[in-house]
Amino acid sequence: MFGLKKRSGTSRKRPQRxxxxxxxxxxxxxTIREHERATxxxxxxxxxxxxxxxxxxxxxxxxxxxxxxxxxxxxLQSRLAKLPKxxxxxxxxxxxxxxxxxxxxxxxxxxxITETGEMDGExxxxxxxxxxxxxxxxxxxxxxxARADLETAVARHTAALGQSxxxxxxxxxKSRWGSCSSRGNLSFSWRIVMAPDYVIxxxxxxxxxxxxxxxxxxxxxxxxxxxxxxxxxxxxxxxxHGSALHAIEFKP
Length: 252
What we know:
By secondary structure, the protein is α/β, with parallel strands linked by helices. It contains six helices and 14 strands. The strands form four sheets. The chain has a five-stranded mixed beta sheet with strand order 1-4-5-3-2. It has a four-stranded mixed beta sheet with strand order 7-8-10-9, with helices on one face.
């Protein structure tokens, strides 16, 4: 993240807009969003390095945005170079499931379920269907596993708190792993199922804790640690490895 303070002033707010910019030999989508309370330009790299987000004060001129991006082109290059490179899924490659690498093996059958197993002592993910549907079938499998794990963890943590969640939804969010609305709806990134079990449990505990503490203050973190003893360890894991999970591409 990089910020630049903007001089004060009043102008008419413009809607969110998007463009592509060239960085390190590739083009990345950039979302520009004006915020009423913003006093500076703030540039963020989305997890996985697949997109950029720029928050700006209301009414800032395009030429000032262009100058800001030009000045910090080198910063973007260096930060993107440190991120994991995007990787796709294909037969023979590996994908983590609950923190364990599984080799992808097509069954050769056009029907049948996608399931984990073992082959020659190695964890594998057996995928049926046509080759061009490999990515979609794996995503469907991961979503199903994520929902099962998260629903179980949420039920356990809400029972411990004496709270209830209005609902659970799964998304492929780039900017956050989960969220809790004021109405008690919990949302999670299904990609979390690729993380170790204790990280999945932490994410569920984190969002459930928001049902009681809608903030990130000391009482919230105390509640998280009460629900999930490995909270600090899980936070470190996500900070270190989360971008790699976002960088995995699942083409249809």
